[in-house]
Design a protein that fits this description.
3 helices; 5-stranded mixed sheet; globular; single chain; alpha/beta; Transcription Regulator spoIIAA
């Protein structure tokens, strides 16, 4: 089970994104991004319990949904996910 918590321009991802909740997490995050007025949007992964390719796919879809030149940045990226980002040449979205 995953939960999103919004704090201004930041989304904290709490728990695990899995096949049962990925679509709901995606939709909730998309709504937050569409209503956001402060950029870049920061995605805090400190409380993400399992960083996997499914979670990364959700984050990439959020990135694609960012309007215009606005950016999405990942904070506290788990080590396993950092490797996936490097292999995908997406390490620039992690800070």
């Amino acid at each position: 089970m995953a939960k999103l918590q919004q704090l201004e321009n930041q989304i904290a991802v709490i728990g695990q994104i899995d096949f049962e909740n990925a679509d709901d997490v995606y939709r909730q995050g998309l709504q937050i991004i569409k209503n956001n007025q402060h950029w870049p949007m920061l995605i805090d992964l400190q409380q993400l319990t399992h960083g996997n390719t499914l979670a990364l796919a959700v984050f990439i879809q959020w990135l694609r949904a960012c309007p215009g030149q606005h950016q999405l940045k990942l904070l506290h990226v788990p080590a396993k996910m950092q490797g996936i980002l490097r292999a995908s040449h997406l390490e620039q979205i992690a800070i």
